[in-house]
Specification:
The complex is a heterodimer. By secondary structure, chain A is mainly alpha-helical. Chain A contains 13 helices and no strands. Chain A is globular. The two termini of chain A are 25 Å apart. Chain B is built from seven helices and seven strands, in the order H-E-E-E-H-H-H-H-H-E-E-E-E-H. In chain B, 45% of the residues lie in helices and 31% in strands. The chains are: A mainly alpha, B alpha+beta. Chain A binds chain B through residues 8-9, 12, 15-16, 19, 21-22, 24-26, 28-30, 32-33, 36-37, 39-42, 45-48, 51, 117, 121, 124-125, 128-130, 132-133, and chain B through 2-3, 5-6, 9, 12-13, 15-17, 19-21, 23-24, 53-58, 78-80, 83, 164-165, 190, 192-193, 197-198, 201.
Chain lengths: 268, 227
């Protein structure tokens, strides 16, 4: 048997469990409609780069991003958690596949499918409405997507994955993930307020490592001189990239630890 | 045959995205604001009735009724060009930035027609700035900014939705030797997305979605029978 066949088999099982008919279909319908309802070109029509940044960022605001993150967390905590809890994972271990490949197939279904759908619909909508802005500032669009995906989506996905593997059940990690997701929405503006109140950019710099979107936001809105932009810290472009790389490194470390634990210390 | 199930689910998802586009296209545009005004334009002069940013989601209808023939122009500037023109003006024009933004197009046309002008203030230059000759010269130099122009008429009405983000300036020009009395009405329109851009992708997605779903359903049925 070719090595790809069992992988596909595990992946297909995971897709069937994570995205039962018609949940994915209803999500696609509502999300597409939501993207067009939320996109307000007039509100963000500023100069080129800032316009592109604000346009993409608006799609990652409430409620679309929360729905997206919670869906990913549900897939990881509930999907993988119930497999561990009910012993389904032992059946998967009987496949001629490494544990790493099994986890990869599960994550591809839990995170990859939703990510592909969400980013695909958003980029499709943006290309339909403002193809010139998106193609002219593709690097800004890429950076904004990278920053928004890094945190909270992938960071929380990694943490919830690790917790699910440690606890071998999904309930508590899911609650942790949802609470953390809401906490993220509160902490970022709070950190900006603390920075402006104290006049020190330290809190912003530290939080920007965990949430690189804060650095990107301060860079684009600060350099454009928008009245509501944070004045305390306007990072250079190199600093933005540095924070983004640091953010992804943290995410990568969490996933590597989770993979290692799944491979060697799961105890099943 | 897992890939058949994948194909089917891909089909149903594409179908749903296509249907969402259809729903979006069915929502009619609404009018967040409208305004009308009465006024007059001196002989061989022009006036500006509107100047702001419009997007593929926002458009407007302008209706002009006048006592003599007038010509209406919609001039559209992309954001980088508009920013460039505003920067040029910043050095020579000293009224408020809001005024400068509203009168960007006539001020640039004026600067090009009278390159020696310096320390411009609106009050000093009203007559020459709104001269039709200055407008004609500006339009000749920047013919690319004309997104729509009407033939000379006493009643003009036109709806406009830009295909990209544009700073649009609406100009009414009186080329006659007499003062023209006119009544202008502007109705803004706002929609989620332009219908013409949604129709083709919606059709393609729905067609592909139905095709993939049918193949999946037929396969599922055949599999059931085989059991």
């Amino acid at each position: 048997m070719r090595r790809s066949r069992p992988f596909l088999e595990v992946f297909a099982c995971a897709v069937k469990e994570d995205h039962r008919f018609p949940i994915l279909e209803v999500f696609a319908l509502v999300f597409t409609f939501g993207v067009f309802a939320i996109l307000d070109l007039e509100a963000y029509a500023w100069n080129g780069e800032v316009f592109a940044y604000r346009l993409v960022s608006s799609l990652w605001g409430f409620p679309l991003s929360i729905i997206f993150v919670i869906l990913i967390l549900k897939n990881i905590a509930y999907g993988l958690g119930s497999d561990l809890d009910k012993g389904v994972i032992q059946t998967l271990f009987s496949y001629p596949l490494t544990r790493r490949s099994i986890l990869r197939a599960k994550l591809l279904s839990a995170v990859g499918v939703v990510l592909l759908l969400v980013v695909g619909i958003q980029v499709f909508a943006l290309l339909l409405l403002v193809p010139d802005v998106i193609t002219a500032h593709s690097s800004v669009v890429f950076l904004t997507y990278a920053a928004n995906l890094c945190s909270p989506a992938l960071l929380l996905a990694g943490l919830v994955l690790l917790l699910t593997l440690l606890l071998k059940r999904g309930g508590l990690p899911l609650v942790f993930g949802v609470v953390s997701c809401l906490a993220f929405a509160i902490i970022s503006p709070l950190v900006t307020s603390i920075a402006s109140a104290t006049g020190s950019d330290l809190a912003m710099r530290i939080w920007a490592v965990i949430d690189p979107n804060l650095a990107l936001q301060s860079y684009y809105l600060g350099t454009a001189g928008l009245p509501y932009a944070a004045r305390t810290w306007v990072p250079s472009f190199a600093e933005v990239i540095l924070h983004l790389v640091a953010g992804f490194l943290i995410v990568a470390v969490i996933f590597i630890v989770a993979y290692r634990y799944f491979e060697r210390r799961l105890g099943i | 045959m897992r890939w058949m199930a994948f194909m089917g689910r891909t089909g149903t998802v594409l179908l749903m995205i296509g249907l969402a586009l259809v729903f979006v296209s069915l929502i009619p545009p609404h009018s967040p604001s409208r305004g009308s005004s009465r006024g007059s334009i001196a002989p061989q002069q022009y006036s500006i009735t509107d100047s702001r940013v419009y997007t593929p989601q926002t458009g407007f209808r302008v209706s002009v009724e006048s006592s003599d023939s007038v010509q209406v122009f919609f001039l559209g500037l992309r954001q980088p060009e508009y920013d460039n023109w505003r920067t040029q003006l910043a050095d020579v024009y000293f009224d408020s930035p809001q005024m400068r933004d509203f009168y960007t197009v006539p001020l640039v046309f004026l600067m090009e027609a009278y390159p020696d002008l310096d320390d411009i203030r609106l009050i000093d230059i009203m007559d020459i700035m709104f001269d039709v000759a200055v407008l004609d010269k500006g339009l000749e130099t920047h013919s690319e900014v004309i997104v729509w122009e009407s033939p000379p008429s006493t009643a003009v009405s036109h709806e406009f939705f830009p295909t990209e983000v544009l700073h649009v300036t609406v100009i009414v020009a009186n080329r006659s030797p007499d003062t023209v009395e006119l009544e202008t009405e502007r109705v803004d329109s706002k929609m989620l997305a332009p219908k013409e851009r949604l129709v083709l992708p919606a059709r393609l997605l729905i067609s592909a979605g139905i095709a993939l779903t049918i193949v999946w359903l037929v396969w599922k049925r055949a599999k059931k029978r085989a059991r």
